[in-house]
Each structure stands twice: as structure tokens, then as C-alpha cells.
Specification:
about 50 residues, mainly alpha
Length: about 50
């Protein structure tokens, strides 16, 4: 866990995180799986509340 101690270490952690996410996205794309959405916009929530 880098947590602002050394700028180079923090940068490296960000690079590793971005690489891992890109690998997950690439794997999902190769296998034809859609990635789940993790967020719902306020407008979508309001729309769901009004239709329920």
C-alpha cells in the first residue's frame, strides 16, 4: 500500500491498478461478456422510483 509516501511508489501502484483493470476489460471483451455497471445515475434512480 503506497499511500503518498513516495511519489514513484504511488505512481507504480496506479500503473498496476490500471493494468489490472485493462486486463479484466480485455478478458471480458474477448469472451463476449459485458462488464456490470457499478453506478446508477441520479436520473436513472429517479426514473426507477417513479415507475415503481
Amino acid at each position: 500500500h503506497a499511500r503518498y509516501r513516495g511519489l514513484a511508489k504511488t505512481h507504480l501502484e496506479h500503473v498496476y491498478s490500471a493494468t489490472a483493470l485493462n486486463l479484466l476489460r480485455y478478458d471480458a471483451w474477448q469472451n463476449g461478456h459485458a462488464l456490470d455497471r457499478t453506478r446508477t445515475t441520479h436520473l436513472s434512480r429517479l426514473e426507477l422510483a417513479l415507475t415503481a
